[in-house]
Amino acid sequence: MATLLRLPGGTKNRGNKNRAGKFYARISVPRPAQRPKQKLVPLKTENPREAALRLQEVEKVEPLIKQGIEYDFPWMEGHRTAVKQISVEQAAKDYLSIRANEGLSSNTLEIFSNASNHLMKIVGASKPLENIVVGDIQDYIRILRESIGSTSINMYLRNLRTFFRWANDSGIMSHPPKIKEVAQPKSLPGYISNEGFDLIQDAATPFLADVFWFYRATGCRLREPFNADLKGTYLIVSTEDSKGREERQIPLTAELIQIYEELIAAGHRPEYYSKQFKQVCRMVGLEDHNFHHLRHTFAVRSWLMSGDIYLVCQLMGHKSIQTTMIYTKFFLSRLQEDFPDLAGFAENKALGRADLIGSGAGPTEERTASPYTDERIR
User: Which residue ranges make up each domain of the chain?
Assistant: First the structure.
């Protein structure tokens, strides 16, 4: 962290009287096998308050200065509005490093890493970040549309927008291109009816069937079980790994705990289960479904059971109730048809958290569940 330094008057500064009494930002620059080098950035003022404000501007680009990038601030003579150009690859590395030090979750960092890697493949890793224009973003969208959906594209675009805003604030990108997200038709979240889930369970291996049931019964996001800690009968997702930046507590039954332990012991990456789920869906003619629909299914079943959208918001780990309100837009009669095992709960508006535990199984002959028990009947 840069510190404020004021050079005193006297004999030490006789050789350069102009520096006496002036403020500087002192930056300690690490050097291999040597003592750190002290770099002084002139703040060009004798006013302590103004010096403190200018120090804040220096701190914004301190990581870049430590890398040897020459930076001219507005208060310097011959000020330029841009720094020495750096590549998209180097800027992305700097951004990742800074955001990681700020405590950003590993999931969010991974999403940005994917977004920036796609950008580098399309425009070139060595291209100066300053030279990125709207046309590059249009090419980015066009090429990504060939392999991923609009939801994922927009997620990457939002990350790039934040990245470009940081670059602009840091002075390494003077004119960030405007980014418009891909237009999407407004539709309700996709969920999997009991009938569809039965088909998936029958087509999957016993282990994968258990894993899919675990996700539907808990509402976990794909990576959450891998970033969580099991404490008693609750799976705890820390604030660092939670999407909403708040600790999430996921209640588990005895059977869900067993499946969770088998899931972790298997040693597969989260993406493995997402791909396996998609393959099984194709096998049974449910190509429109994806892994995240298991989480949506948990949400609509919880809503149908409780009628308490605030409880559903808490169970889902949503930061805002507005995010959860989307599930109230389904017609109750439609949900009752798709989840006949829960139709009787539609009239009951007083169920609590404990009543929801273990309610993830569908109404098949081989596998049923009661919201009042920890066990599935196979």
Answer: 3-66, 88-169, 194-377
Of 257, 277, 334, nearest to 303 (Cα)? Answer: 334
State how far the alpha carbon of 301 is from the alpha carbons of 22, 240, 339, in Å: 67, 28, 8
Homologous superfamily assigned to 194-377: Intergrase catalytic core (1.10.443.10)
- Categorize the per-residue pLDDT at 367 as very low, low, confident or very high, splitting at 50, 70 and 90: very low
Global pTM value: 0.56
CB of 248 closer than 8 Å to CB of 314: no
Residue 60 has a pLDDT of 82
- Token pair belonging to 133: 């224009």
Work out the average pLDDT over 260-267: 95
pLDDT digits (tens, 9 = 90+) for 9-54: 654 444 455 666 788 889 888 877 778 888 888 888 888 888 888 8
Q: Crossing angle, helix 194-203 and helix 206-218, to 10 degrees?
A: 150
For 88-169, give the CATH class: mainly alpha
Structure tokens at 310: 């605030």
Distances (CA, A) of 104 to 172, 243, 374: 22, 10, 35
Query: What is the model's pLDDT at position 93?
Result: 93
Extract the tokens encoding 76.
């310097």
Best mean pLDDT range from 55-59, 206-210, 250-254 = 206-210
The amino acid present at 57, given as its one-letter code, is E
Residue 49 to residues 4, 43, 56, 72, 81, Cα–Cα distance (Å)? 11, 11, 11, 21, 24
CA distances, 220 to each of 313, 348, 353 (Å): 13, 25, 16
Q: Please check the confidence at residue 195 and state whether its pLDDT lies above 90.
A: yes
Q: Where are the alpha helices (DSSP H) in the chain?
A: 48-60, 62-66, 88-101, 106-123, 134-144, 150-169, 194-203, 206-218, 224-227, 254-266, 270-283, 293-306, 309-316, 321-324, 332-338, 353-356
